[in-house]
Amino acid sequence: MRIVGLTVTATVVLAIAGASAFAPQSPGAPARPPAAAKPAAKAAALPRTSDGVPDLQGNWTNATITPLERLRPNTPLVVTEEAARDEETKTRAAMELREQDSDPNRGAPPVGGELRKSPNAEPTYLERVWQGGAGTVGGYNSFWIDPGDRVLRVDGQPRSSILIDPPDGRIPALTPQARERVAQAAAARKSLGGEFDHPELRPLAERCITSFGNNAGPPMLPNYFYNNSYTIVQSKDTVVILTEMVHDARIVRINGTHPPASVRKWFGDSIGRWEGDTLVIETTNFHPNHGFRGAWENLKVIERLTRRDAKTINYRFTVEDPTTFTAPFTGELVFNAMAPGEMVYEYACHEANYGLEGVLSGARAQEREAAKKKTQPQ
Amino acid sequence: MRWVSVMQMSVVAGVAAATFALVSSPRVEGQARPGAIPRLNGKPNLNGLWQAINSAHWDIQAHSAKAALAMRPGPVVPVPAKEVIAFGAVGSVPSGLGVVEGDELPYTPEGLKKKRENQANWLTRDPEIKCYLPGVPRATYMPFPFQITQSPAATFIAYEYAGAVRHIYPKDPGPAQIDSWMGMSYSTWEGDTFVVHTSGFNDQTWFDRAGNHHSEKMKVTERFTMVGADHIDYEATIDDPVTFTRPWKMSMPLYRRVEKNAQLGQFKCVEFVTELMYGHLRKEPLK
Q1: In this predicted complex, what is the ipTM?
Q2: B143: distance to nearest CA of chain A, Å?
Q3: Smallest Cβ distance to A351: which of B155, B173, B181?
Q4: pLDDT at B8 over 50
């Protein structure tokens, strides 16, 4: 039997658990999801390929400090420009504080790690994410990370969450059968031993199989850490979306059909079509270990990429799986053009994965030490 | 030892036959029908799924078939190494006439020494065994298809093996900023030939399973010439003054995967080598 849904990355867990200073100024009526993106101002001015469709090619980033889900109930989707700038200022202050050199003479952190100081009265969303992502035992100085420092703005509107529907900006509840599935998987997982007992129990990103969270998606989400970079290359029949992390390329077959359900891929099987000037991608055939929040077998993700201008692609996605979620949900993000000359590099993760070896050997060393203590006379 | 001498004779005969066969070039010839070449913006249209069909991934030089790549001395004749016995004929090596022009690899003495060490330690040294990125040109003739996506903005090659990728810039972006497994590539056109210039490699990739290797100084120039709607004449020139005494060239046809619904599969083998690479670090390693 294949144990599925075991590996959840730290980032995803934190995205659920984190509470933040992302402070929508006043609780109000939940915002309605905005209507579908308006057609770009001057459709004729959009860059187009020789096939006449919008040219989506280039290097893009979806880095943002806006979380996937609304952090507080009954807060609006759209925040004021002032609140957005405040969040950005606090995030930059946190980045600057963490940019300082580590003290080479410091001792080991206390057991269980330590929380870093925050320059803010209440830590920002990103600070909470970092604290979970190895930040409590030192982690990276912010020199090494590049999570973005901007609140998501869609057509100029600052947003408090990527999700726009349901109106509360939260992922809908799991169905009873999905809850049972998750519970069974958790029980099966527990029966396999401690989290360091087997390489297969380590997170996918640590094993260099995928990026953190849902970087390659779909839906393609920021990882709040680094390398939220993508390259798009297009031909008449194919749109390639390369995720820098773990060099994962999604190959979208225009007007293609999905393979049989027995064929499973880590990022699903993607087919596309042009609806006017929007590229619509439908993805199914997800891999048992990398769907979305426990959904994979019947998961379907629809993505809509609409080039707005020279520097932005609007990205809207809908996730549906009636066997997992009680309702479909929709989110909206922006892919921003990377600065000219900024490149996407080879992320050869597996080839230099000293981390996984270190994590597992460390656990074995601790076990040996514990065994030695036991056998030594008191 | 009668059997050994018979075997030695057959090896000599095999090498002679292979050398003779090399007199005829492995290039695709006589098939060119320029009118049939699909075009895109005036240039040959390389978009699609391609694959080499040869045994260069075992050994780019001419070689006879053999029981296994990893062998050890046996009581009568050499036998497969313990680690690969279970594969039987599935693990046997098919013969090949080689893809190297002249069949000679102009190694420096140190380069040849390292190749022989690599060969003797194939199971522990070949980066393919660990699902490492294949490098160039090895990615081209792995026994997997690859997909070219061609546009004026960039050319992208996605390889099924290990999910390797190359983003080929349409202009030289200058020296590579960092070394990498797949190198940094840009393209030029020489008439109807798509030329890819790649440098910025590390020294970790091989050319084949036979231990042929290079240094980080390697530059590869690949030429993709369509000789029909479904054939590419592929050439790769290897220039690596650290490992070789002169540049050398390999060539082979690439075939379009013409089956209906041909598409790139996913062979994300990192997961597949978990036991090989980390099994010994389990709390209780498997017996």
Answers
A1: 0.88
A2: 20
A3: B181
A4: no
